[in-house]
Amino acid sequence: MTAPNKHKLAILTWCILYPMITVLLTALDPFLRDAAIPIRTLVVTLIIVPAMVYGALPFATSRLRSWLTDMTRS
Question: What does the pLDDT profile of the chain (74 residues) look like in tens digits?
Fold first, then answer.
């Protein structure tokens, strides 16, 4: 099995991560509005990292495997 192209994997990660962070920050804003930035960051990363590692990235990479491993196209 060919390893995924790191540049494509970085793009895919950003394409998943950015909307997830935006939605989560919006959803948690009423609860964390008065919290300090380090506390907000802690809460968001405690949710986002497991969601990415165990959910979003495995789902996306399994469906885009041929694009991620195709070295003939950029």
Answer: 788 899 999 999 999 999 999 999 999 999 999 999 999 999 999 999 999 999 999 999 999 999 999 877 55
Sign of CA dihedral 58, 69, 23, 29: positive
3-state SS class at 3: coil
- Six-digit token string for 56: 């979003």
Residue 44 C-alpha from the chain's centroid: 12
Query: To which residue do tokens 């979003």 refer?
Result: 56
CB 3 within 8 A of CB 69: yes
Amino acid identity at 9: L
